[in-house]
Each structure stands twice: as C-alpha cells, then as structure tokens.
Amino acid sequence: MRTVTTSLNPDGGPVAPALRRSRRWVVLAILLVGLALLVVFSTTVGALTGSRVIPWTTVLWIVGYHLTGGLLPSAPCPPSLSGMTCTIQTEIVWGARFPPLLLAVLVGAALGISGGALQGVFRNPLVDPYLLGLSTGAAVGAAILFTFNLAPAQQATVLPLLAFGGGLIPGTVVYLAAGGRARSVETLLLTGVALNFLFSAVLDALLLYNPTSGVQVNFWLLGGLSDATWDRDAIVFGVLLVAGTLIALHGRSLNVLQLGRDVAESVGVDARRTTRRVILLSTVLTAVAVAFTGVIGFVGLVSPHVVRRMVGSDYRIVLPISGLFGAGFLVLAWDLAQSVVPSVVIPVGIPTAFAGAPFFLYLLYRRQGLTGSGTSGT
Amino acid sequence: MTEAPLLPLTVDAVSVRYRDQVAVRSVSLAVPPGEVLALAGPNGSGKSSLLRAIAGLEPLSQGSVHLLGRPLASLSLRERARVVAWMPQEEAPGDNVPLLDYVRYGRFAHIPPLAPERAADVGAVAAALADADVTDFASRGMLTLSGGERQRARLARTLAQETPVLLLDEATAHLDVGHQLDLLVRIRRIARRDGRAVVIALHDLNLAARFADRVAVLSHGQLVAEGDPAAILSPELLARVWGVVAEVRRDAATGLPYLIPQLPLGLQPASVRSPRRLRVHVVAGGGTGVPYLRRLVEEGYEVSAGALPLFDSDSEAAQELGVPVAVEIPFAPLGTEARARNRVLLAAAEAIVVAPFPVGPSNLANLEDLHEFSSRIPIFLIEAPSGASLEFAGGRATEAREQLLRDGAVRVADLPNLLATLAARRGTSKGPVPDGPSQR
Questions:
Q1: CA dihedral (B356, B361, B366, B367) positive or negative
Q2: In this predicted model, what pLDDT tens digit does every residue of A4-14 receive, in sequence order?
C-alpha cells in the first residue's frame, strides 16, 4: 500500500513504476541466486552421498577437474590417491553419482517449466504435466515392451523410445484438437482427461494379458534416476534447452491469455497458436523426462504454485524460476531418496510427494486467499 | 457505401451468423474521428455480436468492415490490435497482477516479440492510466480493486492500445450511477481530444442520449434507427423495439431527450392494480384533461389516457400520475401508431371519459375513433363550459359528438357529476372480476 502514495508523481510520468520494478528485480535476483545455490548445494550433497564414503575434498577435486576440463585442479585426483583408487573414485563420483544428479536437475527443470506453462495455457492451477494423459501414454508404451518382452537385448534404448512415443500421443491429440476455432480450454482439458482414461484402459488390458509385466511397469512408473547416463543427460539437456527456451518465450502471451482468448486476441496475442505451441512443447519436454525417469509426481504441479507465491503471476518470470525451483526440488528429493535408508535407493517419486505435500499445504494455508500478492513487493 | 474510405470505421452490410442463427443482419455504419456512437437495443439484439465482428473476433458471414480504409480481413492480429481496441462486457478475472502490468498488456501488439518496452510504450501506458484515472491504483493487484476501479482499469488497457477505433461493450455494466457518468464523460472527452472513433453498446438509453453524438438502434440484428438521439428516440421506437411504453421528455437545460419508462400493462405492482378497480380511459387535449386525470387517479380508478401530443400538459400530467398514455410527437396529426396504441388502451377500458377539449383536424381522430367502442363501453361526454366552443375542425367535431350521443353516450355536466356517475357504476358492477393480463 505504501507504494500507492509513491506512485503519485506530480509530472504524471512513469517514475513510480520504474521504482517498483527495480525493487522487483532485486527480489528476483535474490531468488534466482538462492535457487541456483540450492541446486549446486544439493548436487554437492548428492555427490557426497552413497554407500562408499569418499572424503568431500576428493569429491570436489574430481568434480572440479571434470567440470573445468582439467583446468583448475590440473590432476584428476588429489596427489595422495594411488592411480587405481583415483580411477575407482572418479568412476564412482563422476560416472555413477553425477549423471543421476544432473538428470534430477534437468528433469526437475523440465517438469517445473512445462507444469507452469500448462497451468497458464489452461488457466487452471490443478493442471500438471501428466494431466493430459502423458504418463498413462508413456506407461502404455513401457507396458507394450514388458508385456511382449520386445527386444530384450536393447531394452535400455527401446524402453525410453516407446515411453516417449506413448507419452506423445495424448498430447498430440490435444494439440490437434486445439486447432479448432471454437475449442475452449475446458474442452481441451477434458479431451486430455478422457484420453487419460482411454490409455488407462489400454494399460489395464495389457497388464491383464501378461500379469507378470505389471510389476515391471509399476516399478518403472514409480520413477527413478538410477538409470541415468551421460548420454541420457545430454539428450534431456538438449531438449530442455530448445523446448524450455521456446516455452519461456511465450511468457508475455501467456500473461495476456489469462484474460481469456477473446481479450488476448483483441490485444494482438494469437491465442490459438500460443495454446497449441505450448501444449506441444510441454508434451515433448515432459515425454522426454518420463522416458528416462518414469513418472515423478508433484514437481510439475507444485513448483509453479510456489514460485507464483513468491514472484507473482508474470509468466515471463514464473516459467524460468519454476524450472529452477523444480530442479532444486528434485535434486533435494533425490538426496533424500538415497540417504533415508542406507544402501537402498527409494524411487524418487516417493520423497517428492512425502516432503513436498506438507510443504505445499503449509504454503496454501499460511496466507489463504492472497494468491500472487507478493508481486508488488509489499 | 465507402464514399469516405479513410474514416476510422466503416461497416458495410455486415451480417454475423452463429450456426443457424443470424445475430446481425446487414448492418451498415460509419464513424468519423472523434465521434461517440452509442449502440442501443434490447438484450439479444446483436450489439455485442456486431462489436465482436468489428473487432475481428467473429467471422463476417456477409459484408465488410474497413478500419482506416483497410479491410479488416487483410489485417494481421497484431496490426488489428493497433487499429481497433475492444473492451468486452465480461472478462476472465485473470491473475492478481498489478494494475500497471495489466494495462501494459494493451501494448502487446506495439512491442515486437522479444523486444523490450520503449519510451513510447511507457508513455502510452502512463497516459492511459491518467485518462482512466487509475494512476493511484497502479501498483494494486487487479483482484483487490472494486468493480468501478476494475472497469476503469479495463478502459485503461484498451486506451493503452492507442487505436483510432474503440469498441466498448456495455462499458458501464456493474457500475453505479456516479461511476457510469464518470466513465462516459471520460470516454467522450478522450474521443474528442484524440479524434478516436468510439462505438459503445449501452443499455441505458438516457445515458446513450446524453453522451453519444449518434445513436444506432438494433433490433433482432437489424439497424432500425440511426441518428441524433434527440431525433430518433421516440415513444414509438421504444414501444416497437423494447416493447415498453415510455415517455420522452426533454431536459430543460440541455434540450436532450430523456425517457421515463412505464411498467408494462399487467405487470404493475399489485398495490396499483388491486383491489379490483374500474378502468377509465380519458380522452383529452390542451390541458383540459388534467383535473380529470388527477381526480380519477386519486379516487382509485385505473386510468389511461390518449392519444396526446408529446409535451402537452395533459400527457405530462398523465406521466406524473403514472397513467399509461398513447403519445404522438408534438404538432403532428395523430399517426397510425399512436392511434393504434390508443385503441389498445380504449379496448381495455370499462368507461371512457371525453374531456371538454378543443378539437381540430390534428386530433379529430380521438373523437372519431371512439365510435367503434361506443356499443361496448359506456362513454361520458363532459359538457363544455358555457360559452366555450370546442369546434376547430369545421363542424366535424360537433358531428362526431352528436354521433356518439346517438350511439348512447351519456352527457355529464362536470367533474363532480362524473365522479358520482362513475361511483354509482362501480357500485353496481357485477362483483370482482379476476384481473389479469388476459384482459389486456
């Protein structure tokens, strides 16, 4: 409220808005740095976590060596380590611990961004990246593989491909449906929900045909980062870079779209094109994530909410920050998944919900009815 | 149709069709810069559809719209948003964004994709905030504003588009009188100052008459009247388009017309209609009917009057008393419409009182039209004050009176005698009759 008085500029010029904006940027910068630090910190913690105890100095040394391409520490390991130990510990830290951590960062970001974008397009805070039937579609893809025991030798390649393909189908159908002139977002949303049920039925039918595959499908669905490799990380990174950036560029359109399609068009936003593009990009992004990690719930739903509460509803800001938040969130969950029971890795979907749900509820009830009021910085 | 192709807005024979239903039928309009055109018409008359069509949100099934001489269909979405701004009747609540950011949305089409805001954009937003008088709320969240503030914020958003054409659909909906006036004054001032062409759909005809340079009236998707509000807003138009009996008066200060609608017959409050009362129709003119109307109403009769010229003291009195009246424009002979409406009132009456009014060629029809009712409804002819002549129609008025008397009309000396006669009739009338719209 204090800003109201300061915005009264005798010359009538836009001085006050500029003032207010600079304050907003400070908040944003703090948030950005904070979240980035969180990601780095939890990644470091993750790299230190494991059944084999490796001193943190060694871990940092190895990570630093690889990250800088052998620049900062010029030797691969601290001089105290023998060549053999160095190879083993490098393999553990950089070869085994790091890829899942990086995958957690990337997938968390992908889910955060696509969740935020889909909530924006559908103007519905209950939407998450899987709502359009994506997870069920991917599960059908995986179930086809397990049920018919296809290509047992190349499973590591074929499984993600099938899951990716299966996940794309419902999203693509909704994308095509969004081409219709008069289609409302409610219709599109319900189309996705209907497809979800349809694929659910297909999945059940497949599992009935070969009940033993049910366990495999379920375990795969639960979500895991353990199968991460550098190659997979690279693929997810590439898709995230392209699709995530393209989605984030729709922030301005998404802002206006919140006022409804007609108002958006009257202001010059191509509502239909925005809707279709964001649906397609989010579907691709999520499908890639699902293909390598299964279904990791909660991140895509919660990240945009939390971020909106912190920075307001400007999608140009919400989308990237939501990605960053999702990344931090998922890495933390992965740290947790590894450390709760020593030497047992819990599917990462479990801690995300276990830790995330209470936190989310706390946020919801702490300041009821003040959604997005943080924007003005008061 | 496009004799002046560079007008901000020309609409040529536009039709809009929703599936099997025609919402707008072949409407043509042209709005010069700086003019406020009010679009009036009952619900469902096609006002919103026409505005949506002009804004490019509804495909035209026929005709064409030109904005600054360019066909609407040839404009890209962004180009369009720089020429025409549209403020809808309803709008999704959206997020609780600060009002300033909300108004900035109006600049979308002015800023190239991925480019930052320029000074022109900042200036346009600041001007829009000032014009809509929302600068003080600029940092408040949209969802925390009151209805009137939000409406002004929406106006600011459309103003920020800096378009030569502004379309405002029910801009004053949800606003109280004070805010309605405020908003309309602002809109008119902005139109004049910037030379913008404004089309505003308005339910309230009084506001339309007051703030618009021209009024276009739509009925069932068709343009039924267009022009200076003072010239076109007539009781006939209201009856025809809205089905409302209303009186058009003139504001003494401005000369602008204003309307006083009446409750539809049969829908009047129960306290007015019941208990069962005798329906009396008064035929008068030139102020002769005033005492009769007043006393009859006071005595509890259900009174109607007509056909009377507008601004006649009789029709003014009838209006004040809430008496339904068939009106004709001043100084014109009674037209078929006024006479038809008078006949409707006559047919519903149970007694007809003919005041001692001067009869000339222009209102002779009032007497002559009574003939067809004389067999069914008792007619009371009040005698003229001694020595006064009521004949200004070359003998035809006297002739009509004689005819009525031959048909069985009763001569009554004056008002007290009339009241006594009517009271007697009321006493003897056969019990309460259910009073319902069926009788009308």
A1: positive
A2: 333 334 344 44
Distance, first Cα to last Cα, chain A = 7
pLDDT, tens digit, for every residue of A315-352?
A: 999 999 999 999 999 988 888 888 777 667 778 888 88
Closest among B241, B224, B201, B222 to B26, alpha carbons compared? B222
* Nearest to B99, CA basis, from B118, B60, B125, B127: B125
Asked whether the beta carbons of A105 and A236 are under 8 A apart, the reply is no
The CA-CA-CA angle for residues B124, B129, B134, to 5°, reads 175
Strand partners, B259: B248
Nearest partner of B309 among B294, B335, B328, judged by Cα: B328
C-alpha closest to that of A52 among A17, A5, A98, A93 = A93
Under CATH, which number does the domain B270-439 receive?
A: 3.40.50.720
Residues from chain A contacting residue B140 (CB–CB below 8 Å): 4, 376
Burial degree of B11 (CB within 10 A; 0-12, 13-18, 19+): buried
Contact: B92, A259; criterion CB under 8 Å:
yes
SS3 B71: strand
A331 lies in a domain? yes
Question: Helices (DSSP H) in A268-348: which residue ranges?
Answer: 271-293, 299-311, 315-339
pLDDT in tens, B330-367: 777 788 888 888 888 888 888 999 998 888 888 888 88
| Residue-level pLDDT at B242 | 77
Range of the domain at A155: 96-376
Interface contact B105, partner A, CB < 8 A: yes
User: From residue A230, how far is each of A40, A66, A224, A348 by CA, in Å?
Assistant: 18, 13, 15, 19
| B98 with A375: Cβ contact below 8 A | yes
DSSP H or E run through A117: helix A98-121
Would you say A177 and A188 are in contact if contact means Cβ atoms under 8 Å apart?
yes
Residue contact B114–A249, C-beta within 8 A:
yes
Residues of B in contact with A270 (CB under 8 A): 77
Please report whether residue A234 resides in a domain.
Answer: yes
pTM, 2 dp: 0.72
Partner A contacted by B141 (CB < 8 A): yes
- A344 in a domain, yes or no? yes
Q: Which residues, listed in sequence order, are joined to residue B21 by a DSSP beta bridge?
A: B18
Positive or negative torsion for Cα A53, A55, A60, A61: negative
A371 at the B interface (CB within 8 A)? Answer: yes
Residues in chain B: 440
ipTM above 0.85, yes or no: no
Interface of A with B in 115-134 (CB under 8 A): 123
CB contact under 8 A, B97 and A312: yes
Residue A341: both structure tokens together: 């029971």
| Domain assignment present for A103 | yes
Structure tokens at A194: 């209907």
B356 Cβ contact list (under 8 Å, min separation 6): B288, B382, B383, B384, B385, B388, B390
Enumerate the H helices of B369-414 as residue ranges. 396-407
Identify the residue among A257, A265, A266, A309 best suited for mutation to test binding to B, counting B beta carbons within 10 A and taking the highest.
A266
The CATH number fitting domain B9-235, selected from 3.40.50.1450, 3.40.50.1000, 2.40.50.580, 3.40.50.300? 3.40.50.300
Number of domains in chain A: 1
Q: Could you give the CA distance from residue B77 to residue B56 in angstroms, rounded to a whole number?
A: 9
Q: Where are the domains of chain B?
A: 9-235, 270-439
CATH value at residue A284:
1.10.3470.10
